[in-house]
Amino acid sequence: xxxxxxxxxxxxxxxxxxxxxxxxxxxxxxxxxxxxxxxxxxxxxxxxxxxxxxxxxxxxxxxxxxxxxxxxxxxxxxxxxxxxxxxxxxxxxxxxxxxxxxxxxxxxxxxxxxxxxxxxxxxxxxxxxxxxxxxxxxxxxxxxxxxxxxxxxxxxxxxxxxxxxxxxxxxxxxxxxxxxxxxxxxxxxxxxxxxxxxxxxxxxxxxxxxxxxxxxxxxxxxxxxxxxxxxxxxxxxxxxxxxxxxx
Length: 247
What we know:
Low-confidence stretches: none
Order of helices and strands: HEHEHEHEHEEEHEEEE
Largest sheet: 9 strands, mixed
CATH superfamily: P-loop containing nucleotide triphosphate hydrolases
CATH topology: Rossmann fold
Distance between the termini: 47 Å
Shape: globular
CATH class: Alpha Beta
Number of strands: 11
Strand order of the largest sheet: 3-2-4-5-1-8-9-10-11
Number of domains: 1
Mean pLDDT: 91
């Protein structure tokens, strides 16, 4: 890609698709993370997002553009994931044919062998969104080491440049650490070093409420939004796996 002078730069026309998720939450070729403590429905929220993106249906209160989606699930065995998917399909009546599921026990995306394999899949399926759940299972190094994290991020950025995908991650928050009885690190912080947060374009934190099956989504960072996005409360119907806004 060559530099452009001012006249050419100002006359350049961007791709017609301005967003994947409205309000700047997910823009083509950007990175988004959904993170939080255990049992805050992160994986299910991302599965719901995948179905809605592939179907072109609104996600919570946000508009979406219909896109093809490729998901990599590292933690949940295939049989258990299939049960979730079948339950979701029947509960939400969504059956997109441009949604791809892959389950692995070991897939390190900072190693050449696994990257070559994934690139073959991206070439075959041509997704516009790649979902990786969770981050810590696809990094061979330490999430707290700047060199290890940087190498992983470089590989993902390379995939974004070549295959024009947006990438959505699931990640965990830190454990609260007290110093002299006061929180020094809280579970509102994303796990790992600061270049994680610097790298993501959108960072959404999930947290529990006092009600079972209810979570709050806080938009800690939305780099491409022109306005602040307030937290939203979401209720999950366990029988149907439907996600609804709580007013």
